[in-house]
Specification:
Belongs to the TRAFAC class translation factor GTPase superfamily. Classic translation factor GTPase family. IF-2 subfamily. With about 475 residues, this protein is of the alpha/beta class. It is built from 15 helices and 21 strands. It has a 6-stranded mixed β-sheet, sandwiched between helices. The chain has a 6-stranded antiparallel barrel with strand order 9-10-16-13-12-17. It has a 4-stranded parallel β-sheet with strand order 19-18-20-21, with helices on both faces. The site of guanosine-5'-diphosphate (GDP) has 16 residues, from helix 5.
Amino acid sequence: LATLLAVAETEVVKRLFNKGIAATVTQTLDLETAIWVSEDLGVEVETPAAESEAKKTQMLEEGDLEHLHRRPPVVTIMGHVDHGKTTLLDAIRKTKIVDSEAGGITQHIGAYHVDVEHDEKTQQIVFLDTPGHEAFTAMRARGTKVTDIAILVVAADDGVRPQTIEAISHAKAAEVPIVVAINKIDKEGASPDRVKQELMEHGLVPEEWGGDTIMVPVSAIQGENLDGLLEMLLLVSEIEELSANPDRLARGTIIEAHLDKSRGPVATLLVQNGTLRVGDAVVAGATMGKVRAMVDDRGERVEEALPSFAVEVLGLSELPSAGDEFECMAEEKEARAIANSRAADQRETRLQQALASRRVTLSSLSAKVQEGELKELNLVLKADVQGSVEAILGSLQQLPQNEVQLRILLAAAGEVTETDVDLAAASNAVIIAFNTTFASGARAAADQTGVDVREYDIIYNLLDDIEGAMEGLLDPEL
Ligand code: GDP
């Protein structure tokens, strides 16, 4: 750094020292500190565009920035039940894979990839093949991001339904771009325009109407316009500039794991950065192992897996959980040491949790406002009827928001569901239940995740509490 800045090494050390950082000449500085020193010496620092990309994709580290290569998008399909998620996933798989690999046996490993001709090149798209957002939110609740693009399936004969709205909220909260597949256009009564109109009411404005959401009419059952949909996914992926560094040891996320009677623990690993190879030492959560064999989604034995690809891996000593991150190490003993220390940490955490559950409550959020630590209050609102939802939303909007912004992740009529709890847990939100009850399992989920569900039957009380929380004045006992 001193050489680059054309100053004496001691000059850098001195400035750091003045800032309270005791550093030696051979020490490595993090980017932020290096920028600070440079600017302190009057040198402006430009960080390459890749830097913000690195932040977006949490698996990238600073050392990767000079070795970035484009990677395929990882896509999840979401939408209301019966709108055609499974049919669409199967249709894409069938038209794109079975055709090209006559006799190939597709393997259900939790993800599959397809090859698409785009821009005169063959490009890949990887689909996570568990439809629905359960997997998506469960992973996000644990802080893992595996999805680059969400396909929102909406049936053209049915329109926007509660789970459609839920899916939109989830994708938005995770900041994942949405591509809408308006499905079942073959059906009588299908009205893509009505779907677009309804989606507009939820903040998704189609491109052709001046917005920025791509909406593609398809028929999953007749295989109509699937190529158009895939093309759009590649387009969005280009805009997102998805990239990773294949020239390093792999890291990523476990997307499935099960115990096989004869083969032992079998896990599907989604590589998000680096290249995974047979023989690599890997830590996943609190378990470890050496990759003994890998099978891809087409049932083929493979020696390596590049970023964005998923492979089934044999060789882990125990079963990891879906959503666990994995990481490869140069040395097996390093992997073992990390796994052992994590196992110890997990025991410790369980103990801690048993001692004091870490609840995010409206009053704990209020306390944070008081300390100036919170600028956004996330809410999930469920009410008995649509009229109440609108009345409450209307009143919430009236609350002054100069200090703290209200962010409504989801507002809908109906019971409080487990997915609402997942959404709240993933986003540190509080659930407001107005004149409504818990769907089965939801209360247990809230207890388990420590999500605060506040029940009201008088709007005035509800508004009073929220306003109090936003001003940091809520009584801590509440
Ligand atoms: P999921 O619950 O979202 O996974 O929906 P499914 O894929 O199970 O589909 C629900 C029903 O809609 C099934 O009976 C499908 O055959 C049917 N379906 C799915 N896609 C289409 C389509 O494009 N056109 C028509 N006519 N029916 C479809």
